[in-house]
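WARN no homologs supplied; continuing
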Amino acid sequence: MTPSRLAMPQILRKDPLHRLPGCWYVEGSRMLRNLDERTVEAMARQSAMATFAPGELLHQAGEPMSAVTFISAGRVKVYRASRDGKQQTIALLGPGDAFGEIGIVDTRAQDLYAEALEETVVCRTTREAFLRLCSRDPALAIRLAEGMGEKLQDARERIADFAFLDIRGRVAHLLLTFLERERRLVGQDDIDRIVPGLTHRELADMIGTRRESVTVAINALERESLIRLEGHEIVLVDIAALRVIAQA
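OK structure emitted
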């Protein structure tokens, strides 16, 4: 699938950079927070916004990661595809997350796909432009290192989960991770529900188990009144108890 044509979102007059069409639009990005205004302006001039429909690919395995992509709206699934065509879900990204920063240090073809799960708006900056900006603004270079470090830490924690937690604990940990990210993005600490947008098999891929095991664990958590399923949403009813399970 090919990306949709570049799309220009509505420019808000209240934004001090309203005349610029680029990455100022990405609100809440951890990598772009509190940067020097000149850096944001330069990034805006050297970036492009794009919209992807559900099912469209932001990145395809075998292609070099030649740009850093910031997600402004929507959700993106990152996965690998095996030779038999099966997908292994690696991560779920949303507003404020970045994809492709590994291409800053490794431009070789990657084995990852990035697919829009819903209508998704992104801002893209080429690898070369991003490197120039990092050389001019040490704060941005530090944010890049922090972002890559956070992903490495997430991977280490996931490996630890595989080693020490049972399936029920892994599922609880994953649900809490989704909730923490949702709270951070929205800026509200009292949110108690999430919309994963992933199948049980995709959730299973993320915690290293089988689909059937995830289904059993979710049903068990619901029977214990720790979560409640409401359509596509999962309400975390007893967050404290879930944290205990996730740390057991």
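The mean pLDDT is 78.
OK
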